Amino acid sequence: MINLIKSRPLNTRLFGVLCQEMGSGHEQLLLHTEVRWLSRGRVLQRLYELREEVKWFLTEIKSDLAKHLDDTMWLASLSYLVDIFDCLNGLNLSLQGRETHILLLADKVHAFTQKLDLWHGRISRGNCDMFPSLADFITDAGTSHDFSSLFQSASEHLSAMRKQFATYFKEDYSSFAWVRDPFVCTANELSIDMQEQLIELKSDSRLKELFSSCPLSSFWAALMQEYPELCDVAFKILLPFASTYLCEAGFSKMTALKTKYRNRAQIEDDLRLCLSNIEPRIEDLCKAKQAQVSH
């Protein structure tokens, strides 16, 4: 449906005019692209929001695809996909950003898998309140339609997704909970020397204030000289890339810097400046240079 409308400029313009005349919240559909990992959910959501406009347009151009938008079960399945992709996009966004580590992201993934178990149980009993688009569609459809087959398909889909998550995220990081909060968690799996160091760390009230006022990586970096063994284990957990966010941010900055007009430019220093959180003191840098006077 989307390709039929978006692939031809005339169809795109006519569809935009139709959306304007119908007072729609949007005037265009979205195209899916593999490069942008949020696009699948947004494409489905935009199509679902403009389903009436798409139906009118496809009917006017006598397309066979219009019959799907009269199919209640097809629309109900689309609303379920809109909701589940929105949940997956929310999980993806929560895994991005700076100052993240594998322990934090593992907890978020574990929480999502627990939600999948909850959703599977509820939708197996015919309850779809956790999926707002699907719940609203079923309410509007009334009691004249039987959605039991859709609930069964959604239940099987959630179960398969839960198993797939289990194959991707097998590691158990519960033994490293002391890295994230050394003042609460215990670490019985550590050696006796490291356990004694951890006890000393917990008893230092000065370090408690430091822990609450700085990022986790900065906290362990400040303890490198005092507790080298504990810090060595902590950094092996905190330093690895927990997601591809930093790599993707670097590629985005590089594509913005190295255009076709600067394809021979050496951008190592510029890229380091773009990715750094440190703001340059432009005034001090200018004062250290001699101005070019006119002759």
What this model shows, in words?
The protein is mainly α and 295 residues long. Helix content is 63%, strand content 0%. It has helices at residues 2-6, 9-21, 39-49, 51-60, 72-94, 102-124, 132-141, 148-168, 177-180, 192-203, 205-213, 216-222, 228-238, 245-257, 268-275, 282-287. Helix 5 (72-94) packs antiparallel against helix 7 (132-141), helix 6 runs antiparallel to helix 8 and helix 14 (245-257) packs across helix 15. The model has no long low-confidence stretch (mean pLDDT 86).
The helix/strand class is mainly alpha
**Portion in strands:** under 5%
Mean pLDDT: 86
Report the strand count.
0
- What's the overall geometry? flat
Largest sheet: none
Distance between the termini: 67 Å
Order of helices and strands: HHHHHHHHHHHHHHHH
Helix content: 55-70%
Radius of gyration: 27 Å
Given as residue ranges, the uncertain stretches (5+ residues, pLDDT < 50) are none
Helical run tally: 16
